[in-house]
Fold:
Amino acid sequence: MKMLASDKTLAFDCLVIDEAHNLLDSGARAQLLAEAILISKKRNPTLLVRYLTPFLFSYESLQLRYTSSCLQGFVGNETLKMPKVFVWEDSHLLQYEQFFDCFYDCGEGYGDYLGLEFAKAMAKNIVYLNRPSSAESHARTLCANCGEVESKLVERFANDLAEVTHPDYFLIDCLKHGIAYHHGAMPEVVRRGVEYLFSEESKCRFLVTTSTLLEGVNLPATRMFLLDTRKGKGNLSPANFRNLIGRICRFGEVFGKTRNLDLLQPEVFVVRSEYMKSNANLKSFVRKTYEATKKHSDQVDNPALSRSSGGLLKERAVFEERLENFESGLVDGYSGRRVRTEVGSACARNNVTDFSIVDEEEGLTRELGVLNGAIEDVSQLVRVVAEVFLSKASDENLRRFSHEETINFYSMFLGWRIQNNPLSVMIAKFVGYWRQQIKSMSPKPAFVYVGSRWGEVAWDGKRPLWVNATKKSDKELVNLAIVRVHEEQEFVENNLLKYVDVLHDLGFVVDSLWKRLHYGTDDDSFIRLLRSGASHSLARLLVEKYRLESEQIGSQLVIPASIYSEMQSAGENILLLLEAKLFVEPHPGSHNVGE
Structure:
Protein backbone atom coordinates (compact mmCIF):
# COMPACT_ATOMS: atom_id res chain seq x y z
CA MET A 1 0.00 0.00 0.00
CA LYS A 2 2.92 2.36 0.69
CA MET A 3 4.30 1.62 -2.77
CA LEU A 4 0.88 2.06 -4.39
CA ALA A 5 0.47 5.39 -2.59
CA SER A 6 3.90 6.71 -3.56
CA ASP A 7 3.57 5.82 -7.27
CA LYS A 8 0.16 6.14 -8.92
CA THR A 9 1.46 4.40 -12.06
CA LEU A 10 2.68 1.30 -10.23
CA ALA A 11 0.91 -1.91 -11.30
CA PHE A 12 1.54 -5.62 -10.73
CA ASP A 13 1.10 -8.60 -13.05
CA CYS A 14 0.45 -11.17 -10.32
CA LEU A 15 -0.27 -11.21 -6.58
CA VAL A 16 0.13 -14.35 -4.46
CA ILE A 17 -1.85 -14.19 -1.22
CA ASP A 18 -0.57 -16.78 1.26
CA GLU A 19 -2.63 -17.80 4.33
CA ALA A 20 -5.56 -16.30 2.41
CA HIS A 21 -8.12 -17.34 5.04
CA ASN A 22 -6.91 -14.35 7.08
CA LEU A 23 -8.67 -12.15 4.50
CA LEU A 24 -12.00 -13.19 6.05
CA ASP A 25 -11.30 -11.37 9.34
CA SER A 26 -12.83 -8.03 10.29
CA GLY A 27 -9.58 -6.46 11.47
CA ALA A 28 -7.62 -3.59 9.97
CA ARG A 29 -4.96 -5.89 8.49
CA ALA A 30 -7.51 -7.93 6.52
CA GLN A 31 -9.19 -4.77 5.21
CA LEU A 32 -5.84 -3.27 4.24
CA LEU A 33 -4.99 -6.43 2.30
CA ALA A 34 -8.36 -6.24 0.51
CA GLU A 35 -7.65 -2.60 -0.39
CA ALA A 36 -4.26 -3.51 -1.86
CA ILE A 37 -5.78 -6.28 -4.00
CA LEU A 38 -8.63 -4.08 -5.24
CA ILE A 39 -6.36 -1.15 -6.11
CA SER A 40 -3.92 -3.46 -7.88
CA LYS A 41 -6.84 -4.98 -9.84
CA LYS A 42 -8.06 -1.53 -10.92
CA ARG A 43 -4.63 -0.49 -12.13
CA ASN A 44 -4.21 -3.72 -14.09
CA PRO A 45 -7.55 -5.38 -15.05
CA THR A 46 -5.66 -8.47 -16.29
CA LEU A 47 -3.99 -8.96 -12.87
CA LEU A 48 -3.69 -12.59 -11.77
CA VAL A 49 -4.45 -13.16 -8.08
CA ARG A 50 -3.59 -16.52 -6.54
CA TYR A 51 -5.08 -17.27 -3.11
CA LEU A 52 -3.37 -20.06 -1.18
CA THR A 53 -4.96 -21.62 1.91
CA PRO A 54 -5.55 -25.10 3.27
CA PHE A 55 -8.25 -23.87 5.67
CA LEU A 56 -11.27 -22.61 3.75
CA PHE A 57 -14.62 -24.35 3.39
CA SER A 58 -15.62 -22.45 0.23
CA TYR A 59 -13.28 -20.58 -2.09
CA GLU A 60 -16.18 -18.25 -2.97
CA SER A 61 -15.85 -16.78 0.54
CA LEU A 62 -12.81 -14.88 -0.80
CA GLN A 63 -14.78 -13.13 -3.55
CA LEU A 64 -14.18 -9.38 -3.28
CA ARG A 65 -16.79 -6.71 -3.82
CA TYR A 66 -16.16 -3.90 -6.31
CA THR A 67 -14.67 -6.21 -8.97
CA SER A 68 -16.22 -8.24 -11.77
CA SER A 69 -13.62 -11.01 -11.47
CA CYS A 70 -15.00 -14.42 -10.52
CA LEU A 71 -12.92 -16.88 -8.54
CA GLN A 72 -12.15 -20.38 -9.71
CA GLY A 73 -11.09 -22.91 -7.12
CA PHE A 74 -8.82 -25.93 -7.05
CA VAL A 75 -9.27 -28.10 -3.96
CA GLY A 76 -6.90 -30.85 -2.93
CA ASN A 77 -8.59 -33.13 -0.40
CA GLU A 78 -5.86 -34.45 1.85
CA THR A 79 -7.14 -37.38 3.93
CA LEU A 80 -3.87 -39.17 4.52
CA LYS A 81 -3.43 -37.80 8.04
CA MET A 82 -6.09 -38.45 10.69
CA PRO A 83 -5.36 -36.81 14.07
CA LYS A 84 -6.59 -38.40 17.28
CA VAL A 85 -8.10 -35.80 19.61
CA PHE A 86 -8.24 -36.33 23.38
CA VAL A 87 -9.86 -34.30 26.15
CA TRP A 88 -8.46 -34.26 29.69
CA GLU A 89 -10.50 -32.90 32.59
CA ASP A 90 -11.54 -34.03 36.07
CA SER A 91 -8.48 -36.32 36.06
CA HIS A 92 -9.93 -38.39 33.21
CA LEU A 93 -8.62 -38.79 29.68
CA LEU A 94 -11.26 -39.15 26.95
CA GLN A 95 -10.75 -39.86 23.25
CA TYR A 96 -13.08 -38.22 20.74
CA GLU A 97 -14.49 -40.26 17.86
CA GLN A 98 -15.17 -37.69 15.17
CA PHE A 99 -17.21 -39.94 12.86
CA PHE A 100 -19.67 -41.08 15.56
CA ASP A 101 -19.42 -37.84 17.59
CA CYS A 102 -18.83 -39.52 20.95
CA PHE A 103 -16.18 -39.75 23.67
CA TYR A 104 -14.54 -42.90 25.05
CA ASP A 105 -12.89 -43.08 28.46
CA CYS A 106 -9.26 -44.15 27.98
CA GLY A 107 -9.09 -45.51 31.54
CA GLU A 108 -6.03 -43.37 32.29
CA GLY A 109 -5.95 -41.05 35.28
CA TYR A 110 -3.56 -38.16 35.83
CA GLY A 111 -3.51 -36.02 38.95
CA ASP A 112 -2.79 -32.77 37.15
CA TYR A 113 -2.21 -31.48 33.65
CA LEU A 114 1.56 -31.31 34.15
CA GLY A 115 1.56 -35.02 34.88
CA LEU A 116 -0.38 -35.59 31.65
CA GLU A 117 2.02 -33.44 29.62
CA PHE A 118 5.11 -35.27 30.81
CA ALA A 119 3.48 -38.71 30.51
CA LYS A 120 2.27 -38.14 26.95
CA ALA A 121 5.18 -36.06 25.67
CA MET A 122 7.24 -37.25 22.73
CA ALA A 123 10.63 -36.08 21.52
CA LYS A 124 9.16 -32.81 20.16
CA ASN A 125 6.04 -31.24 21.65
CA ILE A 126 4.04 -28.07 21.04
CA VAL A 127 1.97 -26.55 23.85
CA TYR A 128 -0.62 -23.97 22.74
CA LEU A 129 -1.81 -21.06 24.90
CA ASN A 130 -3.76 -17.93 24.03
CA ARG A 131 -1.82 -15.17 25.79
CA PRO A 132 1.92 -14.44 25.58
CA SER A 133 2.05 -14.01 29.37
CA SER A 134 0.47 -17.47 29.78
CA ALA A 135 3.00 -18.99 27.38
CA GLU A 136 5.93 -17.55 29.33
CA SER A 137 4.41 -18.56 32.67
CA HIS A 138 3.82 -22.16 31.59
CA ALA A 139 7.27 -22.45 30.01
CA ARG A 140 8.78 -21.43 33.34
CA THR A 141 6.62 -24.02 35.13
CA LEU A 142 7.86 -26.75 32.76
CA CYS A 143 11.40 -25.46 33.24
CA ALA A 144 11.10 -25.83 37.03
CA ASN A 145 10.17 -29.50 36.56
CA CYS A 146 12.96 -30.41 34.12
CA GLY A 147 16.66 -30.88 34.68
CA GLU A 148 19.30 -28.95 32.75
CA VAL A 149 20.37 -30.33 29.39
CA GLU A 150 23.94 -30.75 28.18
CA SER A 151 24.28 -29.28 24.70
CA LYS A 152 26.98 -27.17 23.08
CA LEU A 153 24.38 -25.67 20.70
CA VAL A 154 22.09 -24.65 23.58
CA GLU A 155 25.07 -23.21 25.46
CA ARG A 156 26.20 -21.16 22.46
CA PHE A 157 22.66 -20.06 21.64
CA ALA A 158 22.04 -18.98 25.25
CA ASN A 159 25.24 -16.91 25.32
CA ASP A 160 24.46 -15.25 22.00
CA LEU A 161 20.86 -14.57 23.06
CA ALA A 162 22.12 -12.92 26.26
CA GLU A 163 24.36 -10.69 24.14
CA VAL A 164 21.50 -9.61 21.86
CA THR A 165 18.95 -9.12 24.67
CA HIS A 166 19.92 -9.42 28.36
CA PRO A 167 21.52 -12.13 30.58
CA ASP A 168 18.40 -12.13 32.81
CA TYR A 169 16.04 -13.15 29.98
CA PHE A 170 13.71 -15.91 31.27
CA LEU A 171 13.95 -17.60 27.87
CA ILE A 172 17.64 -18.33 28.50
CA ASP A 173 16.81 -20.20 31.73
CA CYS A 174 14.10 -22.18 29.93
CA LEU A 175 16.34 -23.14 27.00
CA LYS A 176 18.93 -24.55 29.38
CA HIS A 177 16.22 -26.98 30.55
CA GLY A 178 15.07 -27.96 27.05
CA ILE A 179 12.03 -25.62 27.06
CA ALA A 180 11.36 -22.81 24.56
CA TYR A 181 8.57 -20.30 24.14
CA HIS A 182 7.40 -18.36 21.09
CA HIS A 183 4.89 -15.52 20.78
CA GLY A 184 4.20 -12.33 18.86
CA ALA A 185 5.55 -10.00 21.57
CA MET A 186 9.08 -11.36 21.11
CA PRO A 187 11.55 -9.63 18.77
CA GLU A 188 11.53 -11.29 15.36
CA VAL A 189 15.23 -12.15 15.59
CA VAL A 190 14.51 -14.08 18.81
CA ARG A 191 11.48 -15.92 17.36
CA ARG A 192 13.55 -16.99 14.35
CA GLY A 193 16.27 -18.24 16.68
CA VAL A 194 13.80 -20.22 18.80
CA GLU A 195 12.40 -21.92 15.67
CA TYR A 196 15.93 -22.85 14.60
CA LEU A 197 16.97 -24.22 18.00
CA PHE A 198 13.76 -26.24 18.44
CA SER A 199 14.27 -27.73 14.97
CA GLU A 200 17.99 -28.50 15.32
CA GLU A 201 18.47 -29.45 18.97
CA SER A 202 17.05 -32.85 19.99
CA LYS A 203 17.24 -31.94 23.69
CA CYS A 204 14.86 -29.00 23.21
CA ARG A 205 11.62 -30.95 23.77
CA PHE A 206 8.85 -28.44 24.49
CA LEU A 207 7.82 -25.34 22.56
CA VAL A 208 5.14 -23.29 24.33
CA THR A 209 3.50 -20.99 21.80
CA THR A 210 0.55 -18.76 20.95
CA SER A 211 -1.33 -18.32 17.66
CA THR A 212 1.85 -16.99 15.99
CA LEU A 213 2.32 -20.64 15.11
CA LEU A 214 -0.77 -20.46 12.86
CA GLU A 215 1.12 -18.25 10.41
CA GLY A 216 2.80 -21.03 8.46
CA VAL A 217 5.65 -21.90 10.86
CA ASN A 218 6.87 -25.44 10.09
CA LEU A 219 8.55 -27.31 12.94
CA PRO A 220 9.47 -30.98 13.59
CA ALA A 221 6.90 -31.50 16.37
CA THR A 222 4.92 -34.74 16.73
CA ARG A 223 2.57 -34.07 19.66
CA MET A 224 0.38 -31.13 20.69
CA PHE A 225 -1.23 -29.97 23.93
CA LEU A 226 -3.88 -27.21 23.95
CA LEU A 227 -4.05 -25.63 27.41
CA ASP A 228 -6.53 -23.03 26.16
CA THR A 229 -9.18 -23.17 23.44
CA ARG A 230 -9.25 -19.45 22.70
CA LYS A 231 -7.65 -17.30 20.04
CA GLY A 232 -7.93 -13.69 21.13
CA LYS A 233 -11.28 -13.05 22.78
CA GLY A 234 -13.14 -15.92 21.08
CA ASN A 235 -12.63 -19.65 20.65
CA LEU A 236 -10.44 -21.12 17.95
CA SER A 237 -12.57 -21.53 14.82
CA PRO A 238 -12.78 -24.93 13.07
CA ALA A 239 -10.28 -23.64 10.48
CA ASN A 240 -7.95 -22.30 13.20
CA PHE A 241 -8.12 -25.58 15.12
CA ARG A 242 -7.34 -27.70 12.07
CA ASN A 243 -4.59 -25.29 11.06
CA LEU A 244 -3.07 -25.50 14.53
CA ILE A 245 -3.06 -29.28 14.81
CA GLY A 246 -1.75 -29.42 11.25
CA ARG A 247 1.50 -27.95 12.62
CA ILE A 248 2.49 -31.35 14.04
CA CYS A 249 3.59 -34.48 12.15
CA ARG A 250 4.33 -32.68 8.92
CA PHE A 251 4.82 -35.03 5.99
CA GLY A 252 8.51 -34.22 6.03
CA GLU A 253 8.67 -35.86 9.46
CA VAL A 254 6.44 -38.81 8.58
CA PHE A 255 8.22 -39.77 5.36
CA GLY A 256 11.56 -38.04 5.88
CA LYS A 257 13.68 -38.20 9.03
CA THR A 258 11.56 -40.53 11.15
CA ARG A 259 9.75 -42.60 8.49
CA ASN A 260 7.16 -43.50 11.10
CA LEU A 261 3.69 -44.13 9.66
CA ASP A 262 2.17 -43.98 13.15
CA LEU A 263 2.62 -40.22 12.83
CA LEU A 264 -0.19 -40.21 10.26
CA GLN A 265 -2.40 -40.40 13.37
CA PRO A 266 -0.91 -37.57 15.47
CA GLU A 267 -2.26 -37.18 18.98
CA VAL A 268 -3.69 -33.85 20.17
CA PHE A 269 -4.65 -33.25 23.79
CA VAL A 270 -7.19 -30.57 24.75
CA VAL A 271 -6.37 -30.05 28.42
CA ARG A 272 -8.26 -28.20 31.14
CA SER A 273 -5.80 -25.85 32.79
CA GLU A 274 -5.60 -22.73 34.93
CA TYR A 275 -5.09 -20.67 31.76
CA MET A 276 -8.55 -21.17 30.29
CA LYS A 277 -11.93 -19.85 31.43
CA SER A 278 -13.36 -21.86 34.32
CA ASN A 279 -16.65 -22.38 32.44
CA ALA A 280 -14.99 -23.56 29.20
CA ASN A 281 -16.82 -26.59 27.78
CA LEU A 282 -14.06 -28.70 26.25
CA LYS A 283 -16.29 -31.43 24.86
CA SER A 284 -18.51 -28.87 23.13
CA PHE A 285 -15.44 -27.10 21.71
CA VAL A 286 -14.06 -30.34 20.24
CA ARG A 287 -17.44 -31.29 18.77
CA LYS A 288 -17.92 -27.89 17.12
CA THR A 289 -14.43 -27.77 15.64
CA TYR A 290 -13.69 -31.39 14.75
CA GLU A 291 -16.84 -33.44 14.15
CA ALA A 292 -16.38 -35.15 10.78
CA THR A 293 -20.03 -35.06 9.69
CA LYS A 294 -20.62 -31.45 10.70
CA LYS A 295 -20.98 -29.05 7.79
CA HIS A 296 -18.76 -26.09 8.52
CA SER A 297 -18.98 -22.72 6.83
CA ASP A 298 -16.60 -19.78 6.65
CA GLN A 299 -17.23 -16.82 8.91
CA VAL A 300 -16.85 -13.81 6.61
CA ASP A 301 -16.41 -10.60 8.63
CA ASN A 302 -14.45 -8.43 6.18
CA PRO A 303 -16.80 -5.79 4.70
CA ALA A 304 -14.74 -5.86 1.50
CA LEU A 305 -15.90 -9.42 0.73
CA SER A 306 -19.13 -10.22 -1.13
CA ARG A 307 -20.28 -12.78 1.43
CA SER A 308 -19.83 -10.51 4.45
CA SER A 309 -22.80 -10.18 6.77
CA GLY A 310 -25.57 -7.71 5.99
CA GLY A 311 -25.00 -6.34 9.48
CA LEU A 312 -21.72 -4.81 8.30
CA LEU A 313 -23.38 -2.01 6.28
CA LYS A 314 -21.84 0.74 8.40
CA GLU A 315 -18.39 -0.85 8.23
CA ARG A 316 -18.79 -1.26 4.47
CA ALA A 317 -19.64 2.43 4.06
CA VAL A 318 -16.51 3.38 6.02
CA PHE A 319 -14.42 0.98 3.91
CA GLU A 320 -15.82 2.38 0.65
CA GLU A 321 -15.11 5.94 1.74
CA ARG A 322 -11.51 5.03 2.58
CA LEU A 323 -11.09 3.10 -0.68
CA GLU A 324 -12.45 5.89 -2.90
CA ASN A 325 -10.36 8.53 -1.20
CA PHE A 326 -7.24 6.46 -1.84
CA GLU A 327 -8.06 5.47 -5.44
CA SER A 328 -11.03 7.15 -7.08
CA GLY A 329 -13.28 5.06 -9.35
CA LEU A 330 -13.06 1.76 -7.50
CA VAL A 331 -16.65 1.69 -6.24
CA ASP A 332 -19.19 1.85 -9.07
CA GLY A 333 -21.75 4.63 -8.58
CA TYR A 334 -20.02 5.91 -5.45
CA SER A 335 -21.90 8.92 -4.12
CA GLY A 336 -20.31 9.16 -0.68
CA ARG A 337 -17.99 11.76 0.78
CA ARG A 338 -14.60 12.69 -0.62
CA VAL A 339 -11.68 14.56 0.89
CA ARG A 340 -11.40 18.16 -0.23
CA THR A 341 -8.09 19.33 1.21
CA GLU A 342 -4.41 18.56 0.80
CA VAL A 343 -4.28 17.44 4.44
CA GLY A 344 -7.18 15.05 3.87
CA SER A 345 -5.48 13.57 0.80
CA ALA A 346 -2.25 13.06 2.76
CA CYS A 347 -4.17 11.27 5.53
CA ALA A 348 -5.93 9.01 3.00
CA ARG A 349 -2.61 8.13 1.31
CA ASN A 350 -1.09 7.15 4.64
CA ASN A 351 -3.91 4.89 5.83
CA VAL A 352 -5.21 7.09 8.65
CA THR A 353 -8.19 5.20 10.11
CA ASP A 354 -8.31 6.38 13.73
CA PHE A 355 -10.94 9.04 12.94
CA SER A 356 -13.04 10.21 10.00
CA ILE A 357 -10.71 12.11 7.69
CA VAL A 358 -13.61 13.88 5.94
CA ASP A 359 -15.06 15.07 9.27
CA GLU A 360 -11.75 16.36 10.59
CA GLU A 361 -9.77 17.56 7.54
CA GLU A 362 -10.75 21.24 7.74
CA GLY A 363 -9.95 21.41 11.45
CA LEU A 364 -6.64 19.64 10.83
CA THR A 365 -5.83 22.16 8.10
CA ARG A 366 -6.45 25.08 10.48
CA GLU A 367 -4.36 23.53 13.28
CA LEU A 368 -1.45 22.70 11.01
CA GLY A 369 -1.64 26.18 9.48
CA VAL A 370 -0.21 27.73 12.65
CA LEU A 371 3.00 25.68 12.48
CA ASN A 372 6.03 27.84 11.87
CA GLY A 373 8.40 26.00 9.55
CA ALA A 374 9.39 22.33 9.37
CA ILE A 375 9.81 20.36 12.60
CA GLU A 376 13.36 19.35 13.48
CA ASP A 377 12.87 18.29 17.12
CA VAL A 378 11.44 14.92 18.29
CA SER A 379 9.65 16.38 21.31
CA GLN A 380 7.86 19.00 19.20
CA LEU A 381 6.94 16.31 16.66
CA VAL A 382 5.34 14.01 19.26
CA ARG A 383 3.41 16.95 20.72
CA VAL A 384 2.07 17.98 17.31
CA VAL A 385 1.01 14.39 16.50
CA ALA A 386 -0.69 14.08 19.91
CA GLU A 387 -2.49 17.42 19.91
CA VAL A 388 -3.42 17.68 16.22
CA PHE A 389 -4.17 14.06 15.28
CA LEU A 390 -4.50 11.70 18.24
CA SER A 391 -6.84 14.06 20.10
CA LYS A 392 -9.43 13.14 17.42
CA ALA A 393 -9.14 9.36 18.03
CA SER A 394 -11.52 7.37 20.23
CA ASP A 395 -9.21 4.40 20.85
CA GLU A 396 -8.15 4.19 24.50
CA ASN A 397 -4.57 3.34 23.54
CA LEU A 398 -4.32 6.62 21.58
CA ARG A 399 -6.26 8.73 24.04
CA ARG A 400 -3.32 8.20 26.43
CA PHE A 401 -1.63 11.03 24.53
CA SER A 402 -3.87 13.54 26.29
CA HIS A 403 -1.54 13.03 29.29
CA GLU A 404 1.73 14.93 29.47
CA GLU A 405 3.48 11.83 30.86
CA THR A 406 2.65 9.88 27.68
CA ILE A 407 3.96 12.67 25.42
CA ASN A 408 7.17 12.83 27.46
CA PHE A 409 7.63 9.04 27.33
CA TYR A 410 7.28 8.80 23.55
CA SER A 411 9.52 11.82 23.06
CA MET A 412 12.14 9.91 25.04
CA PHE A 413 11.47 6.60 23.25
CA LEU A 414 11.71 8.16 19.78
CA GLY A 415 14.91 9.84 20.93
CA TRP A 416 16.32 6.36 21.65
CA ARG A 417 15.03 5.13 18.29
CA ILE A 418 16.81 7.79 16.20
CA GLN A 419 20.07 6.95 17.98
CA ASN A 420 19.94 3.53 16.26
CA ASN A 421 20.60 1.71 19.52
CA PRO A 422 20.79 -2.12 19.41
CA LEU A 423 18.10 -4.15 21.19
CA SER A 424 20.24 -4.80 24.27
CA VAL A 425 20.76 -1.06 24.80
CA MET A 426 17.05 -0.32 24.30
CA ILE A 427 16.21 -2.95 26.95
CA ALA A 428 18.71 -1.46 29.39
CA LYS A 429 17.31 2.04 28.80
CA PHE A 430 13.76 0.81 29.40
CA VAL A 431 14.74 -0.83 32.71
CA GLY A 432 16.64 2.31 33.72
CA TYR A 433 13.57 4.44 32.98
CA TRP A 434 11.35 2.23 35.14
CA ARG A 435 13.85 2.24 38.01
CA GLN A 436 13.90 6.02 37.82
CA GLN A 437 10.08 6.01 38.00
CA ILE A 438 10.17 3.75 41.07
CA LYS A 439 12.69 6.02 42.78
CA SER A 440 10.79 9.23 41.99
CA MET A 441 7.45 7.79 43.21
CA SER A 442 8.78 6.24 46.42
CA PRO A 443 7.25 5.46 48.88
CA LYS A 444 4.13 5.41 46.66
CA PRO A 445 3.70 2.59 44.10
CA ALA A 446 5.02 3.30 40.60
CA PHE A 447 2.48 2.20 37.97
CA VAL A 448 3.91 1.76 34.47
CA TYR A 449 1.95 1.15 31.27
CA VAL A 450 2.53 -2.31 29.73
CA GLY A 451 -0.61 -2.87 27.62
CA SER A 452 -3.33 -5.51 27.65
CA ARG A 453 -1.01 -8.49 27.15
CA TRP A 454 0.92 -7.90 30.36
CA GLY A 455 -1.32 -5.59 32.40
CA GLU A 456 -2.25 -6.55 35.96
CA VAL A 457 -3.78 -3.34 37.34
CA ALA A 458 -6.56 -1.07 36.00
CA TRP A 459 -4.86 2.01 37.39
CA ASP A 460 -6.71 4.84 35.63
CA GLY A 461 -9.34 2.98 33.57
CA LYS A 462 -11.44 -0.16 33.31
CA ARG A 463 -8.87 -2.42 31.65
CA PRO A 464 -5.75 -3.84 33.35
CA LEU A 465 -3.10 -2.08 31.27
CA TRP A 466 -0.60 -1.31 34.02
CA VAL A 467 1.72 -3.05 36.47
CA ASN A 468 3.05 -1.88 39.82
CA ALA A 469 6.77 -1.73 38.98
CA THR A 470 7.60 -1.29 42.68
CA LYS A 471 6.60 -4.92 43.30
CA LYS A 472 8.67 -6.33 40.43
CA SER A 473 12.15 -7.81 40.85
CA ASP A 474 14.99 -6.59 38.66
CA LYS A 475 14.75 -9.79 36.58
CA GLU A 476 11.00 -9.35 36.11
CA LEU A 477 11.56 -5.76 34.96
CA VAL A 478 14.14 -6.94 32.42
CA ASN A 479 11.71 -9.48 30.95
CA LEU A 480 8.91 -6.92 30.81
CA ALA A 481 11.31 -4.54 29.08
CA ILE A 482 12.18 -7.13 26.40
CA VAL A 483 8.56 -7.52 25.30
CA ARG A 484 7.71 -3.86 25.77
CA VAL A 485 10.58 -2.65 23.57
CA HIS A 486 9.25 -4.85 20.77
CA GLU A 487 5.63 -3.81 21.33
CA GLU A 488 6.51 -0.12 21.56
CA GLN A 489 8.49 -0.36 18.32
CA GLU A 490 5.45 -1.95 16.65
CA PHE A 491 3.15 0.70 18.13
CA VAL A 492 5.38 3.48 16.80
CA GLU A 493 5.61 1.89 13.34
CA ASN A 494 1.91 1.03 13.02
CA ASN A 495 0.25 3.89 14.90
CA LEU A 496 2.52 6.94 15.09
CA LEU A 497 4.75 6.98 12.02
CA LYS A 498 1.81 7.28 9.62
CA TYR A 499 1.14 10.71 11.15
CA VAL A 500 4.82 11.58 10.82
CA ASP A 501 4.48 10.56 7.13
CA VAL A 502 1.45 12.83 6.75
CA LEU A 503 3.40 15.76 8.20
CA HIS A 504 6.43 14.91 6.03
CA ASP A 505 4.30 14.75 2.87
CA LEU A 506 2.95 18.20 3.71
CA GLY A 507 6.44 19.64 4.33
CA PHE A 508 6.12 19.95 8.11
CA VAL A 509 9.00 17.54 9.01
CA VAL A 510 12.59 17.91 7.85
CA ASP A 511 13.82 15.04 5.69
CA SER A 512 16.72 13.99 7.95
CA LEU A 513 14.45 13.63 11.01
CA TRP A 514 11.91 11.65 8.97
CA LYS A 515 14.65 9.25 7.80
CA ARG A 516 16.12 8.80 11.28
CA LEU A 517 12.69 8.04 12.76
CA HIS A 518 12.03 5.39 10.12
CA TYR A 519 15.50 3.91 9.83
CA GLY A 520 17.61 5.16 12.74
CA THR A 521 19.96 6.87 10.26
CA ASP A 522 19.95 9.32 7.37
CA ASP A 523 22.77 7.48 5.55
CA ASP A 524 21.22 6.45 2.22
CA SER A 525 23.40 3.36 1.71
CA PHE A 526 22.55 2.13 5.21
CA ILE A 527 18.87 2.84 4.54
CA ARG A 528 19.10 0.75 1.37
CA LEU A 529 20.17 -2.20 3.52
CA LEU A 530 17.32 -1.69 5.97
CA ARG A 531 14.75 -1.34 3.19
CA SER A 532 15.99 -4.65 1.78
CA GLY A 533 14.87 -6.30 5.02
CA ALA A 534 18.03 -6.38 7.14
CA SER A 535 17.83 -5.53 10.83
CA HIS A 536 19.85 -2.63 12.24
CA SER A 537 22.29 -5.03 13.92
CA LEU A 538 22.95 -7.06 10.78
CA ALA A 539 23.23 -3.95 8.60
CA ARG A 540 25.75 -2.40 10.99
CA LEU A 541 27.80 -5.61 11.08
CA LEU A 542 27.85 -5.95 7.28
CA VAL A 543 28.86 -2.34 6.67
CA GLU A 544 31.30 -1.74 9.51
CA LYS A 545 33.03 -5.13 9.88
CA TYR A 546 32.59 -6.87 6.52
CA ARG A 547 32.73 -3.72 4.39
CA LEU A 548 29.72 -4.56 2.25
CA GLU A 549 29.77 -1.82 -0.38
CA SER A 550 26.63 0.12 -1.30
CA GLU A 551 27.24 -0.92 -4.94
CA GLN A 552 26.58 -4.53 -3.86
CA ILE A 553 23.11 -3.57 -2.63
CA GLY A 554 20.74 -3.35 -5.56
CA SER A 555 16.96 -3.61 -5.49
CA GLN A 556 17.40 -6.35 -2.89
CA LEU A 557 20.12 -7.35 -0.45
CA VAL A 558 22.29 -10.26 -1.55
CA ILE A 559 25.11 -11.27 0.79
CA PRO A 560 27.96 -12.96 -1.10
CA ALA A 561 28.57 -16.54 0.02
CA SER A 562 32.19 -15.57 0.72
CA ILE A 563 31.12 -12.97 3.30
CA TYR A 564 28.69 -15.44 4.90
CA SER A 565 31.45 -18.05 5.18
CA GLU A 566 33.72 -15.43 6.73
CA MET A 567 30.97 -14.61 9.27
CA GLN A 568 30.66 -18.32 10.16
CA SER A 569 34.42 -18.68 10.57
CA ALA A 570 34.50 -15.61 12.81
CA GLY A 571 31.84 -17.19 15.08
CA GLU A 572 29.42 -14.29 14.75
CA ASN A 573 26.32 -14.25 16.89
CA ILE A 574 24.13 -17.19 15.87
CA LEU A 575 21.00 -14.98 15.73
CA LEU A 576 22.68 -12.67 13.21
CA LEU A 577 23.92 -15.67 11.20
CA LEU A 578 20.36 -16.98 10.99
CA GLU A 579 19.20 -13.63 9.65
CA ALA A 580 22.14 -13.25 7.26
CA LYS A 581 21.45 -16.72 5.84
CA LEU A 582 18.13 -15.40 4.47
CA PHE A 583 20.03 -13.10 2.12
CA VAL A 584 22.84 -15.37 0.96
CA GLU A 585 22.94 -16.24 -2.72
CA PRO A 586 23.57 -18.92 -3.74
CA HIS A 587 21.84 -20.32 -0.64
CA PRO A 588 24.38 -22.10 1.60
CA GLY A 589 24.00 -25.87 1.52
CA SER A 590 24.52 -26.38 5.24
CA HIS A 591 21.37 -26.08 7.33
CA ASN A 592 23.37 -25.58 10.51
CA VAL A 593 24.51 -21.95 10.71
CA GLY A 594 27.37 -22.97 12.97
CA GLU A 595 28.97 -25.21 10.36
